[in-house]
Amino acid sequence: MDQIEAQLKKIRTKLDDVPAFQKAEDVTKVPKEYIALGGGALVLFILFFGVGAGALCNIVGFVYPAFKSFEAIETQARGDDTQWLIYWVVYAFFSIIEVFVDFLLYWIPFYYPFKAAFLIWCMAPQTRGAKFLYDSFLKDFLKQNESRIDAAMDSAAKNASVIASEAVAAGADLTAAGVLAAADMSKKDDTDKKDE
């Protein structure tokens, strides 16, 4: 029991630096270490039992990195900019792969806890997992396929432009047809009133 109380004191000491936990403790009258542990247990429950796990993983993958990217943009140092740019490249690559194999991932037990751990490993400044993946694999892959990727992007942009112009033309045709139908209906109503 003393070991548990010692660990709770350590957690409380670390949480003393986080004003949000102090406010939560003041409002709820629940010790902040219990709030933190309860929140952690809730996150683990969501991850392991899948209820909202995809959304939670997306939050893990976006919120902290987005904030750190904002901070990196606002500082004069260049190293942190590079770290977060590499993270976003790795995250985008991972997300693209995930889209195409999503139907298989459904069958992998505990996929979301592994995904959350992977994203934390990628973003953590202590591990620099994204930089490791980028330097070990992704950089060479992207450099080898850069011209093919550029060609695919150009083709997609042209196709999107054609589709958008066709949609605008179809919309204009539909609008013109609607206006003509309304005009014909108005003329018919005027003719019917005169005949009466």
Put the structure in a nutshell.
The chain crosses the membrane at residues 41-64, 84-108. The protein has 196 residues and is mainly alpha-helical. 86% of the residues lie in helices and 0% in strands.
Q: How many DSSP helices? A: 9
N-to-C span? 97 Å
Multimeric state:
single chain
Whole-number total of structural domains: 2
Q: Radius of gyration, rounded?
A: 28 Å
Keywords: Membrane, Transmembrane, Transmembrane helix
Family: Belongs to the DP1 family.
InterPro entries: TB2_DP1_HVA22
Pfam family, one: TB2_DP1_HVA22
How would you describe what is shown here?
The protein is an all-alpha fold and 196 residues long. The chain folds into two domains: 1-145, no CATH class; 146-195. The protein is built from nine helices and no strands. It has helices spanning 2-15, 19-28, 32-49, 53-74, 79-100, 102-105, 111-123, 129-144, 146-195. The longest helix has 50 residues, at 146-195. Its main location: membrane. Pfam families: TB2_DP1_HVA22 (PF03134). It is a multi-pass membrane protein. One of its GO terms (cellular component) is membrane. The chain crosses the membrane at residues 41-64, 84-108.
